[in-house]
Amino acid sequence: MKTIESLLTPRIESENVKYDTLIGYSLPSEKVISDENSVEITEEKIVIKGRGKDELALGEGYIKQLSLIFNGSLPVCSFSFYSPAYKYRGFHIDCSRHFVSREELLRIIDAMSLVGFNYFHWHLTDDQGWRFPVPGYEKLEEISSKRHIYDNNDQKHVHQGFYQREDLEYVNKYCKEKGITVIPEIETPGHAEALLASYPEFGCTGNKIEVQNNWGVFENVMNPASETLWVFLDAAVKELASIFDGPFIHIGGDECPHTQWEDHEGCKAIMAENGLSDTSELQGWFTSCVSEIVKKYGKRAIGWDEVVDAPEIDKDVVVMSWRGLNGARTATSRGHNVILCPENGGCYFDRYPSVDPWELGNLSLSIPKDSYDLDISMKELEEDRRNLILGAQCCIWGEKIHSGREMEFMLFPRAYILAENLWLGEERKDWDKIKDRKDILALLSYKMDLLCNPGKWE
């Protein structure tokens, strides 16, 4: 007979927990804030005790895991479990490159909630599509949400998708019920071609362009000197802040070419007026201005690690370190909070999960063991800088992922593995013990009608 600890992820604290009796999963449950974390299942009731809301949410996740594994029944047992090692335990989904339906998002959110994730970073805008409404800017749905693509027979099709306010509100409410906070993202100042296709006056050239149907980095970016752009960004942030009740709004900041800024008279005027020596400092100024808008509506800005390529930005900006860990090193040296998501450090799940030639993936390698080996605590840093690290997240980018099924296959089991790293932390994680749960984690996915990659873990 398998013990309870051999079934659950993240690994529980109790060991050698056995069970003899199975009961129906229809019992009343009680959740209690306590000085301990425990789950007790008797023939009369279920009691979940936790030191906080995250622990209570995971206790409920453990119950649901057991119910799935035991086909709707529950084993009579009791066990204790750990508190999370990190406050921020996130997952990112790109819905711009290929649109992801609300229904598929909810399926992914269900799975992530079972294993302790507590933030959903929702990538809503990019060069290839803008996915949410801003009052007064109807072209976002009419133009920016659609792009032309060509099939293998060179036939032209339209790829499109748009969330209405009702969809955003529904996902926010659904996540909240699961103990997950949503972080919406608006890409600024780069990755903006979908926006500029509708409103070219927000760019530097004013030229009419189409929504981008290729992948990469493009020179058409937001114009810091455009007054109408700042009116729009205020309206967009206001709309998101009115829908999502979490503390953060992500403002992008990555991969922004400065070519169009360098010879633009309006940009030169801003630089002269603010004593900025180059366009890197201009982007820092832009980041700080967007951060101020975010704060105006009661939120805190997060940016990709290019935001600290500028010598100075608003100290309240949280930095997401994706180009390795150098962004985290720079940001913590300046006193910024940091979230880790290194692209080649076990956090980018659109990457190949193994070297086997039959695997799906893009660009580089990110094997499951990488997600467990990532040192989220960054022991190399001094303690005061380590304390600025909020946690980490996995990212799934949509360039080569055309369907929800493909996304599931790329997410699992790597998401489960990172979830345990995030919850247990450096001192408690044990690779051999989670490896022993490989078949159980696959079963968990299949019970939720989700695909799980059966390939190698290391």
Characterization of the model:
The protein has 458 residues and is of the alpha/beta class. The protein is built from 16 helices and 18 strands. The strands form five sheets. The chain has an eight-stranded parallel beta barrel with strand order 7-8-13-14-15-16-17-18, surrounded by six helices. A four-stranded mixed sheet has the order 2-4-3-6, with helices on one face. Strands 1-5 form a two-stranded antiparallel sheet. Strand 7, helix 2 and strand 8 form a beta-alpha-beta unit. Helix 2 (102-114) runs parallel beside helix 4. The protein is globular and about 75 Å long. The two termini are 27 Å apart. The model has no long low-confidence stretch (mean pLDDT 97).
Number of domains: 2
Adjacency order of strands in the biggest sheet: 7-8-13-14-15-16-17-18
Number of strands: 18
Low-confidence stretches: none
By CATH, the architecture of the largest domain is named: Alpha-Beta Barrel
* Estimated radius of gyration: 23 Å
CATH topology-level name of the largest domain: TIM Barrel
- Helix proportion of residues, in percent? 25-40%
Gross morphology is globular
> Tally the helices: what do you get?
16
Our measurement of the CA-to-CA distance between the termini, rounded to an integer number of angstroms, reads 27 Å
- CATH H-tier superfamily of the largest domain: Glycosidases
Describe the main β-sheet briefly.
Answer: 8 strands, parallel, barrel
Bin the strand percentage: 15-25%
Alpha-beta content class: alpha/beta
So what's the CATH class of the largest domain? Alpha Beta
Mean pLDDT: 97
